[in-house]
Specification:
The chain is of the alpha+beta class and about 400 residues long. It contains eight helices and 23 strands.
C-alpha cells in the first residue's frame, strides 16, 4: 500500500488491452507514480494514481488518443468528506494524532539483548525498579545513572548499556562469568555425588585422596583442596578434575490401573485488560466460581504495526480452562506404556556423559497397581565441588 497516495487521495484509471502498453509508457516517461496495478480478463489494465496525477494523465491521454476511464475515489480526503457531519469522529482523529505525537516522548518498548542465564523478566523488573519501563518519559531518562543503578541492584549482571533508539530502549547486558573484582573464589574439595567404584581419575588441581578400584560412598572426600607442606605450610586451592566410577541407580514407577484424569471443557475468558504504556484498564471480568476446577492461563499479547513495529499497547488476557475429573480404567498394556514413559523421564536425569553398561527392567502387578523397577549400571563422573571456609 502506497501511503502517499492514501493521504493525498487517489483514483483508479482503466484502459483496454490495445492501449495498455501506451499508457504504461506514458507513466514511465512522465514519472507518474502508480499503485495496485492489475490485469483484467480481457487484457485491459487498471492502476491507481494520485488526484493531481489522474488529471494530468487524463489530459495527456486525450492528446495522444489513448482511451481511458477514471473511476473510484478513495484516500484520506474522501474519508474526511464522507464523515464530515460526524464531528465526534473528526475530534477523535485529531486527538489520536495529537496523542501519537506526544507518545513519541515516551518509551514504547524495552528491548533486552545479551542475556543467557538471567531471565528477561527478571532484568525488566530490575530496570523498572530503577525507573526504566514502557511509558517512561524520555527527556527525564539519564542512561548513565540508570546503568549504575541497575549494576548496584543486580548481583547477576556485570555490565549494562542503555541506548535510546527513538521510542525503543535497547538494553545490552553481560552476565557474571567470574566473581567481581576483589572477591576471591573460596577453596573447594571434590566429593562423591553417589556411591561407586572408581574407574579412572583425571586431576587438574588438588590433593587426590582416593585411588582407582576403591569403593566410595556418597559425600566421601575424593580430592582435597588443602595442601600440607613441611616447607610452605598449608595451602588452599579450588580442587578440579573428573573422577569416573562404576555406579548403580535404582528406579521405581507405580501406575495404578484406576486413576483420575482431567477432561477439559471449552476455555473461557475470565479477565481482559488493555495496557497502554504503564497503565492498564480492565474492561472485562467474569465473576469467579471458587468451586470450579480449572487451569488458569495468563498471557500478554503485544500489538505490532505491520508485524514489525511494536506499539506501547498490549492486551492482558486471563483464561480459565475448566475441567472435570473422570475415573479412567487402564488396561495392563496401557499402564505398562505409561510406566515406561515415566521411567524415561527419570532416566533423563542421568548425566548425558554417563556411559550405560547395563539396564535391567522388570515389572509386576501388585493388586491394582503396576510396578516397574529398573536397575542401571553405568560409568559416570561422580566428582562435585564443595566449598569450605578458611579459619585463620
Amino acid at each position: 500500500m502506497n501511503f502517499t497516495l492514501f493521504f493525498t487521495g487517489k483514483r483508479r484509471i482503466y484502459t483496454r488491452a490495445e492501449h495498455a502498453a501506451a499508457l504504461m509508457d506514458l507513466c514511465l516517461q512522465r514519472g507518474i507514480v502508480y499503485d495496485r496495478f492489475c490485469w483484467d480478463e480481457d487484457g485491459g489494465i487498471s492502476l491507481e494514481v494520485s488526484l493531481t496525477a489522474a488529471k494530468r494523465l487524463e489530459r495527456l491521454c486525450v492528446e495522444r488518443g489513448i482511451a481511458v476511464r477514471l473511476f473510484g475515489r478513495s484516500g484520506l480526503p474522501y474519508l474526511f468528506w464522507r464523515y464530515r457531519r460526524r464531528v465526534g469522529l473528526a475530534v477523535g482523529a485529531v486527538l489520536g494524532v495529537i496523542l501519537l505525537i506526544l507518545s513519541t516522548r515516551f518509551v514504547w518498548e524495552v528491548r533486552v539483548t545479551g542475556n543467557e542465564q538471567v531471565e528477561r523478566g527478571e532484568i525488566l523488573a530490575e530496570l523498572e525498579a530503577c525507573g526504566l519501563f514502557v511509558g517512561s518519559y524520555i527527556p527525564h531518562l539519564h542512561t548513565e545513572a540508570l546503568e549504575t543503578q541497575v549494576l548496584i541492584a543486580s548481583d547477576r549482571l556485570s555490565w549494562v548499556a542503555i541506548h535510546l533508539d527513538g521510542t525503543v530502549a535497547v538494553v545490552q547486558v553481560l552476565e557474571h562469568t567470574a566473581p567481581p573484582d576483589g572477591e576471591r573464589l573460596k577453596p573447594a574439595n571434590l566429593i562423591a555425588a553417589v556411591d561407586g567404584q572408581i574407574e579412572s581419575i583425571e586431576l587438574y588441581r588438588g590433593n587426590c585422596m582416593v585411588k582407582v578400584g576403591q569403593a566410595v560412598r556418597a559425600g566421601e572426600l575424593l580430592v582435597s583442596g588443602l595442601y600440607d607442606s613441611a616447607t610452605q605450610g598449608y595451602r588452599y586451592t579450588r580442587a578440579a578434575g573428573t573422577v569416573k566410577a562404576r555406579t548403580e541407580h535404582n528406579f521405581r514407577v507405580e501406575i495404578p490401573l484406576t486413576r483420575e484424569e482431567k477432561r477439559y471443557e471449552e476455555s473461557e475468558y475470565a479477565e481482559i485488560s488493555l495496557k497502554f504504556f504503564h497503565f492498564s484498564v480492565k474492561f472485562f471480568k467474569k465473576g469467579g466460581n471458587d468451586d470450579l476446577l480449572c487451569d488458569i492461563i495468563k498471557e500478554e499479547k503485544a500489538v505490532e504495526l505491520f508485524d514489525r513495529y511494536r506499539l506501547p499497547v498490549s492486551l492482558l488476557v486471563t483464561k480459565v480452562h475448566p475441567y472435570r475429573l473422570q475415573s479412567v480404567r487402564l488396561t495392563p498394556d496401557e499402564a505398562l506404556d505409561a510406566a515406561y514413559a515415566a521411567l524415561e523421564e527419570q532416566l533423563s536425569a542421568l548425566s548425558t556423559e554417563a556411559q550405560l553398561l547395563k539396564k535391567d527392567v522388570r515389572y509386576a502387578m501388585d493388586g491394582d497397581v503396576l510396578i516397574l523397577t529398573c536397575r542401571v549400571e553405568c560409568i559416570e563422573n561422580i566428582a562435585v565441588q564443595q566449598e569450605f571456609e578458611i579459619n585463620e
